[in-house]
Amino acid sequence: xxxxxxxxxxxxxxxxxxxxxxxxxxxxxxxxxxxxxxxxxxxxxxxxxxxxxxxxxxxxxxxxxxxxxxxxxxxxxxxxxxxxxxxxxxxxxxxxxxxxxxxxxxxxxxxxxxxxxxxxxxxxxxxxxxxxxxxxxxxxxxxxxxxxxxxxxxxxxxxxxxxxxxxxxxxxxxxxxxxxxxxxxxxxxxxxxxxxx
Length: 197
Fold this sequence. Notes:
The structure is a single chain. The chain has 197 residues and is of the alpha/beta class. The chain has one domain (11-194): Peptidyl-tRNA hydrolase (Rossmann fold). It contains 6 helices and 7 strands, in the order βαβββαββαβααα. The chain has a 7-stranded mixed beta sheet with strand order 2-3-4-1-5-7-6. A hairpin with a 4-residue loop joins strand 2 and strand 3 (54-61). This is Peptidyl-tRNA hydrolase. GO terms for molecular function: peptidyl-tRNA hydrolase activity; tRNA binding.
């Protein structure tokens, strides 16, 4: 797939990964949901339960028609609700943009890419399996590596530190900007604009 711009069709599916419920809301693993909430505020609407298994919101961003989707399942089962939602809206994997936490990117940094492995991320593994391809866009929100010998799975299920929380709204906002840039101008332009910062 060589297209720099998400989606051959009319609409793009913006999928934020996270775990449902207040217990997980502030976790590092839930930055995908946080970014989707920011994008929803820009669209100007509220998420509604959809029969595909996700909370969805339709609108326009970056000059494109979008469907924002937050799976109602746990992280490691994200693929099912997303593929159900994609089928309903007739969006294939080329129109899928997944926003997720990334351990191998420093906190506060963003990386955008097309395709690649799951790097041990259970949400991405589920999405890849459900869609039957690795070729979808990813917006990777850096959460950094766990300190000392802390297990990565424990680290991502903890809330951000006090210091990190001070920067979090700004980084979530920048990540939402990166998604809009990807939609409007394509992957290369978004990488050039956001990888350096």
